[in-house]
Amino acid sequence: MDASKIDPPAARDTSTLEEDISAVLNRHSAENASNTPDFILAQYLLGCLAAFGATVKARDAWYGPPRLQIHDREVSLQPPHQTTYKPVGVK
Fold this sequence. Notes:
Blueprint: H1 16-27, H2 38-63, E1 67-70, E2 73-76, E3 85-87
Antiparallel strand pairs: 1-2, 2-3
Helix pairs in contact: 1-2
């Protein structure tokens, strides 16, 4: 990560989640172990979360959304508004 692209909190608009993560890190002095400002650690953690989300989307695009077998029904693990229930063997 290019250090010139990291702005301190006062110089940019921060999201509520980033501020909350930064505050929790600070409250627990979690930034002390790495001697890294809490807002930089918060940005890093949000980046990890975004990378994980992109990885899950890529996996689902490759294999299709995960499905779960519950008794005689196959359940899609898509968001609730897209969830489909089908009897086993029905396509």
